[in-house]
Write a structure and sequence with these properties.
The chain has 251 residues and is of the alpha+beta class. The chain contains seven helices and 13 strands.
Length: 251
């Protein structure tokens, strides 16, 4: 195995770091936690969660459902003890062919309950942020993976990432990827401690139906991770810039 920066540069999974790079947990995400029968989590509302910071998730470990904020940045179990920089996302396609994520796809899956997420659309030389949420206004249950590795201080550290797939019609207007959105019984199936094979994973890690999400343009202030305010999720309205609702425009 190549070590240090050379190995990290060579890893194709790092490309997914730019996909679904910000999420929110401020209001209704806890409904998903309750629906799963998991314990509640006391955390402050957050409107601009970025990779490298804690992200509340639900996982089943040793038969028990656990709700916990884990660092967003997946570090595989076999990584060196001083490895700190992780993967924000993992591509669902061919995941069992990639050692970085294979064991977690098989045994360590989690659900990340969110109110919505941000994505950026390239428009000329600019990248404009858009906010995605469920079309019915409810929360989203995103499929994720978690890992446990030995950190430099001798403790075992859990980290997580989101799983991404090809976009549906609305998401595809902004970006080439979108997170796995789990609904109904698929949420519990994802949390099962059953050892998945590739077919099990592929059955659940699918693109959300068209019109499942709504989206609109938001303030470029979301680009600054230091800003964490409710106004970030509001539609951008100004003299020169009106909200874009692709779900309506596409008919």
């Amino acid at each position: 195995r190549r070590s240090g920066p050379a190995r990290r540069r060579a890893s194709p999974a790092l490309v997914t770091r730019i996909m679904c790079g910000r999420v929110t947990q401020f209001a209704r995400w806890e409904e998903i936690v309750k629906s799963l029968g998991a314990p509640s989590a006391e955390v402050s509302p957050r409107y601009n969660i970025s990779p490298g910071t804690p992200l509340v998730s639900v996982r089943r470990e040793q038969g028990v459902l656990r709700t916990e904020a884990l660092p967003w940045g997946f570090v595989p179990a076999w990584a060196s003890a001083d490895e700190q920089e992780g993967h924000a996302n993992a591509r669902a396609e061919g995941i069992f062919d990639r050692p970085t994520f294979r064991d977690s796809a098989r045994h360590r899956r989690c659900v990340i309950p969110i109110d919505g997420y941000y994505e950026w659309k390239t428009e000329g030389k600019l990248k404009s942020p858009y906010y995605f949420r469920a079309a019915d206004g409810g929360p989203l249950a995103v499929g994720g993976l978690w890992s446990l590795h030995l950190a430099a201080d001798g403790t075992h550290r859990r980290t997580l990432c989101l799983v991404t797939v090809a976009p549906n019609r609305e998401a595809g207007e902004v970006h080439s990827r979108m997170p796995v959105v789990l609904t109904g019984a698929d949420r519990q199936a994802w949390l099962s401690e059953k050892a998945f094979v590739a077919e099990d994973f592929a059955r659940l890690a699918v693109t959300a139906p068209d019109r499942a999400l709504s989206l609109y343009r938001v303030s470029p202030d979301v680009n600054r991770v230091a800003i964490d305010a409710e106004r970030l999720v509001l539609p951008l309205v100004g003299a020169m810039d009106q909200p874009d609702f692709f779900g309506d425009l596409l008919g």
